[in-house]
Amino acid sequence: MATSVYETETLELADGLTVEMRPLKIAGLRKFMKEFGKLEAVQDDNDKSFDVLTACVVLALKQYKEEIANKVWVEDNLDLNNYYEIIKAAAGIDMRAVGNV
């Protein structure tokens, strides 16, 4: 019997679409963290912060549901709560924790 080393999570996105998510594989996590690292430099600029978060969500969605992993779809169909849920499922970063938001 195999032992699961991660738990999958099914998220319902703002448009009603469901996506089964689990932590990113290392290659995807490296790209994600490189992009996420840019957030601190732009934290005082809302537009730039959203650009970084959107890029992170797009990178995460490439592993889960590649057909929706683009900036236009993400910005048109997801809300901030979805962003936070995807980031937490993908990289274990809780954006709601004190100091992150």
Give the mean pLDDT: 90
* Biggest sheet descriptor: 2 strands, antiparallel
Strand order of the largest sheet: 1-2
Instruction: Tell me the helix content.
Output: 40-55%
Number of strands: 2
What amount of the residues lies in strands? 5-15%
Number of helices, counting only DSSP H or I runs of 4 residues or more:
4
Structural class: mainly alpha
The H-and-E topology, N to C, reads as: EEHHHH
Write down the overall geometry. globular
* Low-confidence spans: none
Q: What is the radius of gyration computed over CA atoms, rounded to a whole number of angstroms?
A: 13 Å
Ends distance: 41 Å
Structural description of this entry:
With 101 residues, the chain is mostly helical. It has a domain of 69 residues. Helix content is 49%, strand content 8%. The chain is built from 4 helices and 2 strands. Strands 1-2 form a two-stranded antiparallel sheet. The model has no long low-confidence stretch (mean pLDDT 90).
